[in-house]
Specification:
The chain has 270 residues and is mainly α. 63% of the residues lie in helices and 9% in strands. The chain has one domain. The strands form two sheets. It has a three-stranded mixed beta sheet with strand order 1-3-2, sandwiched between helices. A two-stranded antiparallel ribbon has the order 4-5.
């Protein structure tokens, strides 16, 4: 009997050892650790950008925006991060995806949105950038003299290195978002991601497409940054039209969206 018990305990121990060394568990751990470091970067960048550009502090509008965003984010691949959205206090027209699941959409953009389908498209596009990891790609930081790393590489390294270089990281993120923009192919990939995400939710991408058409015709000076950091609006509208072949039902206006728009349109930055 003693031999049987000993053998049984050995088998249990072997099974536990296998479980603790499960490569999937190790991969999950690495994903969580990388996400934790990315969120650290994102929080610092949010503080840096809001301090420099200002944020609209309207609890009702921000709450609606975040509930809208998180309902879309339920269907994205990256579930190890929490997606959050703030309203940047500027009349310029743009939206920005920061590391760690943070998204900014400008007040100027929200004032020009006429229906929830357009809002869904813009947020889905930014979710595309985050899930395709565009904010982390090809942004380089000199962490030590002569040692240059991308933000993506930093996520697998030391938290101390990230902390020591946080100011520089924030400046690089700001430059990527507000000056350089993503590569044109990144923007088209994010548009493709947006259309596919909207189709999963049975939302027609036509509202998102028509938004670009309206902006292109308007030709406002507030579009200068968008033109500089993105492919031509006309080209993106044509690309979206090509992608949106399934034509699911349009997402019509809702009472909550109308209330949200009343708040947004009533905010004056002057």
């Amino acid at each position: 009997m003693k031999k049987i018990i000993t053998c049984f305990l050995f088998i249990i121990g072997s099974l536990m050892a296998c479980l603790t060394t499960d490569p999937r568990s190790e991969e999950d751990r690495q994903i969580r650790e990388a996400a934790s470091r990315e969120i650290e970067m994102g929080k610092a960048a949010v503080t840096y950008i809001t301090g420099k550009y200002g944020i609209v502090r309207n609890e009702t509008a921000t709450s609606y925006l975040n509930k809208f965003l998180q309902s879309l984010a339920l269907y994205t691949q990256r579930q190890e991060i929490l997606y959050r959205c703030g309203i940047l206090a500027t009349e310029r027209i743009n939206a920005y995806a920061l590391p760690g699941g943070y998204i900014f959409i400008t007040l100027g953009t929200l004032k020009r949105i006429e229906n929830p389908g357009t809002l869904a498209g813009i947020l889905a596009h930014e979710l595309g950038h985050l899930n395709l990891r565009h904010p982390m790609n090809k942004v380089t930081v000199e962490v030590n003299p002569g040692q240059v790393q991308t933000l993506q590489e930093l996520l697998s390294g030391s938290r101390r290195v990230i902390t020591d270089n946080m100011d520089l990281i924030c400046q690089k993120i700001e430059k990527r978002l507000f000056v350089d923009g993503y590569l044109p192919e990144d923007e088209y990939d994010a548009d493709k991601y947006a259309v596919e995400l909207l189709e999963v939710l049975n939302i027609n991408a036509s509202d998102y497409m028509h938004y670009f058409e309206r902006l292109d015709k308007a030709g406002e000076t507030r579009l200068a940054e968008l033109y500089r950091t993105h492919p031509p609006l006309k080209d993106r509208a044509e690309y979206l039209e090509m992608l949106a072949g399934l034509n699911p039902e349009v997402l019509y206006k809702t009472e909550q969206f109308r209330e949200f728009k009343i708040i947004i349109d009533g905010i004056n930055l002057e």
